Each structure stands twice: as C-alpha cells, then as structure tokens.
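Format notes (please read before filing issues)

Several people have asked whether sequences and structure tokens are stored in separate files. They are not. Every record keeps both together, in the order shown below: the sequence lines, then the token lines. Line labels are part of the format and must not be stripped during preprocessing.
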Amino acid sequence: MFRMSAFLLLLLSLGCGGPSVDETIVINKDNDKEVLGALTTETFRVDNSTGTEPMTSDQTALKQYTHRVEVIPAAGTAVDTDRVRTEVFLAYNISTESRELPKDAACALTRVNVPPGNVYLYDIEWQEKWREGTFDIGQPDGTPEGTYRFRETLNCRIVGARVEP
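Then the structure lines:
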C-alpha cells in the first residue's frame, strides 16, 4: 500500500511541472514595450567606376530576418515554451505556418546619381525592433508566469554617403 501511494504521489508531482493542455496562456500585449536592439552598420556600394555617363537610379538595400520569440519563465515556473511562442505569434497576428520564413527589411536609398569614374558608398544602419511583455497561465493573478521578447521587425536608415577614395 505504501509503495502504491508513493508511486501515485510521484506521478502527481511529475504532472504538475507545466500548464496542462486545457490551461489558457494569456499574452499581456496591452502592457508590452518596444525595445530596440543593437545598431549594426553596413556599407552599400554603388559602382560607376567604369561608366562614361552618370549613373542615376533608385537603389534598394535588403536584409533578411525572421520573427523570433524568446520565452523567459519566472523563477521556479515550468512553462511549455512552444505553446507560449505560438500564443505570442497569434497575439501579434503572425501566421504560425510562415513564422520561420525569412522576412525582408527594405531600406530604399534615395535616387543615386554617381558621376562617371566614381564609386559612392552609402552607410546603412540596421536595428532590430523587439516587443517585450509578460504572460500568464490560466487567469491573470498579478504575478505573471514569465516574460517574452518578440522580434517584430528590422528598421533601417541611411546614415552617411561618401565618395570612395
């Protein structure tokens, strides 16, 4: 009898490690905040070094990224991180079928006008934009079960232009 009780107690304790399938995960999107990631700068080169006439065109720089969710459970809380990720994607209207496909961030350069025999360099600054918030399992009780970070997009801007020496 003692062995059976200990076995049932062990099974019950193992089953309490995370939210059950029936428990709702609530993404507290209303209280999220925007967080900007580190800046990275890349140089975009427009080469008209062998041209005999000015090069005038619209240029576009592209960089690919994927939406990403990081889940950080509160201390001592077991969380089904895949379910939380799915709920975050749904809360931000991101298709769960295409969430791993690369997205393009376009930074349209203004019309370039490079004289013949020159190379112009454009410095482009890229910065990730994240949303950070909390989530609850079951009814919100004022003590979230964890936080999440969601890479929403990738911003870019031109920060400089110069002639290549």
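For reference, the curators noted about this record: The CA atoms of residues 30 and 133 lie 8 Å apart. The beta strands are 25-48, 55-57, 60-65, 68-73, 103-108, 112-114, 118-137, 146-163.
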